[in-house]
Amino acid sequence: MSDLRDAAMSSKAWPFEEARALLKRVQAAGKSEVLFETGYGPSGLPHIGTFGEVLRTTMIRRAFEVISDIPTRLICFSDDLDGMRKVPGNVPNREKLHDYLQLPLTSVPDPFEEFESFGHHNNAMLRRFLDTFGFEYEFYSATDYYRSGQFDTVLKRAAERYDDIMTVMLKSLREERRQTYSIFLPIHPETGRVLYVPMKHVDAVNHTITFDDEDGREWTLPVTGGHCKLQWKPDFGARWAALGVDFEMYGKDHSTNTPIYDRICEILGGQAPNHFTYELFLDDQGQKISKSSGNGIGIDEWLTYASTESLSYFMYLKPKTAKRLYFDVIPRAMDEYHQQLRAYPDQTPEQRAANPVWHIHSGDVPASDMVVSYSMLLNLASVSSAEDRGTLWGFIRKYAPDASPETHPNLDQAAGYAVRYYNDFVKPTKVYRAPTEAEREALQALREELAAWQGGQDDEALQTLVYAVGRDRFDPLRDWFKALYQVLLGADQGPRFGGFIALYGVAETVALIDTALAGELAG
């Protein structure tokens, strides 16, 4: 552990860089505990962004625990006192929800008819979601905190320092918005709705607000006890001050608000936490992924075709760089994750600290049993037209006789993923072409060499053979491999071809070439 701690203190891996910065903050403040926070808006179900935010925060938390013995906690805070601004499009019984617009989410009936409110339903889904992935966290509800009085101290302070906070907020608002803006959102005593109305008076001594409702009736309410909540930007800073948050990350779309959040936290007597701003994901067209538009890929969709660990690997890579999050990134993520697993046992402490798998598994790194890569399984599924993983195991057993679904569970799981991925994405786009005369002559030469082959299933020897056949016939040589992929596999890219032959089988590859030369693939 001491070797790893030494490595972590100089590692350029982003979780360790953030952990070291956080340690400086905590030591300067003399704190005996470190509080990490992630926020959740329960107007909809948790999604892949929720996963990424909690995962990345957990990676920094675990990195911190390597370099410091100061205890840590992670809070997942649900802003469930927010008013429901529109009826979600993906819930049952939608017509029953229209009468509950602007009510706090925890006062809206559950359209699924399973929990006491829509907010409680989505909170339960969040906890189930986080528990499924084994995250260690504490769940906090805004409704509980406002109504129980746990935010009363910071709310009183907000009333006392109302003008200072309003000065910060008004600078960020358009002129027309300034006329009606208030940091406080009253909850109507009769209707229960969250009101967006200007304040007539804020009493800094008695900690009350006075306002007119939509019908012109004047009300005076205490700011405490759940009679109002804060607008979302002030709420960020107030929550940090009330809870003593040391670290929170959020997407780039929040970055322009960071000075606002920080200043409000300071006005309310807190110390602004350390931040980490991550880039947003892009869909296959390079557009930002949006929950409302439904573009991009969801977590359930990723996990249909690949493991949780591969998604964690994807989330680890370059979090400050915008990345395409679409189905075609899955095979590479799967293969690179297992490449890093295989490299880990022979690495130095410094290399391990920089290896993504250390951060994915919090240092308890398993061994990889992927004796065949995911991309190779995809190509095997393609040439064998596999409909189930059993077809792939027929080839795997010949290539690796000691492997079985029982001894290699990750490989077995990956075979199932590969069959689904092939049938959903590869099969519909396969386009074979006939070989040119030069390619036909080369394929015939390769066929004859393979027909006379006595070297068994030696990947490297077969790759050398494939290379030798193409070396004197193609310039550049990549045109030879491109021809192999397009003519034999119906794709523009493909595996290391010697490895493919070893897995698929020499005799089977000879038969495949014969089929292509007979025009039965392109036809």
What order do the helices and strands come in, and which of them pair?
Elements: H1 2-8, H2 14-29, E1 34-40, H3 48-67, E2 72-78, H4 118-132, E3 138-141, H5 142-148, H6 152-160, H7 162-170, H8 175-178, E4 184-186, E5 201-203, E6 208-212, E7 218-222, E8 228-230, H9 232-243, E9 247-251, H10 258-267, E10 274-278, E11 281-282, H11 299-305, H12 308-316, E12 323-324, H13 330-343, H14 349-354, H15 356-360, H16 374-384, H17 389-399, H18 409-426, H19 437-451, H20 459-471, H21 478-489, H22 497-504, H23 506-517
Parallel strand pairs: 1-2, 1-9, 2-3, 9-10, 11-12
Antiparallel strand pairs: 4-8, 5-6, 6-7
Helix pairs in contact: 2-3, 6-9, 7-10, 9-10, 12-13, 16-18, 17-18, 19-20, 19-23, 20-22
Question: Care to describe what's here?
Answer:
The chain contains 23 helices and 12 strands. By secondary structure, the protein is of the alpha/beta class. The strands form 4 sheets. The protein has a 5-stranded parallel beta sheet with strand order 3-2-1-9-10. Strand 1 (34-40), helix 3 and strand 2 form a beta-alpha-beta unit. Helix 9 crosses helix 10, helix 16 (374-384) crosses helix 18 and helix 17 (389-399) packs across helix 18. The relative contact order is 0.08.
Q: How would you sum up the global shape? A: elongated
CATH architecture descriptor of the largest domain: 3-Layer(aba) Sandwich
Oligomer: single chain
Give, in spatial order, the strands making up the sheet with the most strands.
Answer: 3-2-1-9-10
Our count of helices gives: 23
Q: Write out the CATH superfamily name of the largest domain.
A: HUPs
What portion of residues belong to β-strands?
5-15%
How would you classify the helix and strand content by structural class?
Answer: alpha/beta
Instruction: Average the pLDDT over all residues and give the rounded result.
Output: 93
Name of the CATH class of the largest domain: Alpha Beta
Question: What's the structural domain tally?
Answer: 4
Stated plainly, the CATH topology of the largest domain is called Rossmann fold
Radius of gyration (Å): 29 Å
